[in-house]
Design goal:
The chain has 151 residues and is α+β, with helices and mostly antiparallel strands. The chain has a single domain (2-26, 60-148), classed as Roll (Thiol Ester Dehydrase, Chain A), CATH 3.10.129. Helices cover 25% and strands 41% of the residues. The strands form two sheets. Strands 2, 3, 5, 6, 7 and 8 form a six-stranded antiparallel beta sheet that branches. The two termini are 21 Å apart. The mean pLDDT is 96. Belongs to the enoyl-CoA hydratase/isomerase family. It comes from Paenarthrobacter aurescens. This is MaoC family dehydratase.
């Protein structure tokens, strides 16, 4: 269940709203391997734990796009809009992978609604999303995520 559920009319007033922070999720080697298979990105820094020990990060790391894709399940923990017919992930305006996520790390997301814009038949929101790594000052991902909600 999301931390916050609002109706469409309330959504239109939410520019600047802090949505809080999700629970942590652990990044596992199995998750990394499945992502590598799905995207055909088998680079050793992700999928070869023995070789990765001697690599630049000292352990396998998650693909940046794997970490980015966690915005979707994290988003579901933070926010939802009731009484709409369609919800669409509209895209991203800006993405930066600012720190690698080592296997076994725990990540979480905090978000805030930066902007709400009315569009034909609904509304678009821009969310400032930051995926943090437990125990590290520097986040893994900083992104501007766009979502649309249609009445």
């Amino acid at each position: 269940m999301p931390n916050l559920v609002v109706d469409f009319d309330t959504l239109l007033t939410m520019s600047g709203k802090d949505l809080g922070t999700t629970d942590y999720r652990e990044i596992t080697q199995q998750q990394i391997n499945l992502f590598a298979d799905a995207t055909d990105d088998q680079q050793w820094i992700h999928v070869d734990p023995e070789r990765a020990k001697d690599g630049p990060f000292g352990a396998p790391i998650a693909h940046g796009f794997l970490t980015l894709s966690l915005i979707i399940p994290f988003w579901g923990e933070l926010f939802d809009v009731d009484g709409v017919t369609t919800k669409v992930n509209y895209g991203l305006d800006k993405v930066r992978f600012t720190s690698p996520v080592k296997v076994g790390s725990k990540v979480r997301m905090n978000g805030s609604i930066a902007e709400v814009t009315e569009v034909k038949g609904g509304a678009q929101i821009k969310v400032n999303a930051t995926i943090e790594i437990e125990g590290q000052e520097r986040p893994a991902v900083v992104a501007e995520f766009l979502a649309r909600f249609y009445k």
